[in-house]
Amino acid sequence: MSGVRSVTAEEIAAFVGSDLLAGRLVEVYENILLTGLVDSLGVMTLVAHLETITNRSIPLEDVVLEHFESAQAIAAYLGARG
């Protein structure tokens, strides 16, 4: 897919903090799911944002705790997908 770009954990944490948590500071290793910071609607908003900025689709079966527990985990998942 042309135009695919990478995204950093810092970018992801900034989006989560500003757009999903009303300006709360989010650390890249902070667990955003098990702590309840981001709910299922927030996860889907995040997935849509990531698909838009990276110009790639994220399969629903990949939206699991292992890949989306923190900004660092998300960035690692996206990086591993190439």
Order of helices and strands: HHHH
The end-to-end distance, rounded to whole angstroms, is: 11 Å
Number of strands: 0
Q: How many alpha or pi helices?
A: 4
Could you report the average pLDDT, rounded to the nearest whole number?
A: 94
Poorly predicted segments: none
Which term fits the overall shape?
globular
The rounded Rg comes to 12 Å
How would a crystallographer describe the biggest sheet? Answer: none
The computed structural class is: mainly alpha
User: Helix proportion of residues, in percent?
Assistant: 40-55%
Strand content range = under 5%
Describe the structure.
With 82 residues, the protein is mainly α. Helix content is 50%, strand content 0%. The protein has helices spanning 9-20, 40-54, 65-68, 71-80. Helix 1 packs across helix 2 and helix 1 crosses helix 4 (71-80). The chain is globular, with a radius of gyration of 12 Å. The N and C termini lie close together (11 Å). The model has no long low-confidence stretch (mean pLDDT 94).
Summarize the structure.
The chain is an all-alpha fold and 82 residues long. It has four helices and no strands.
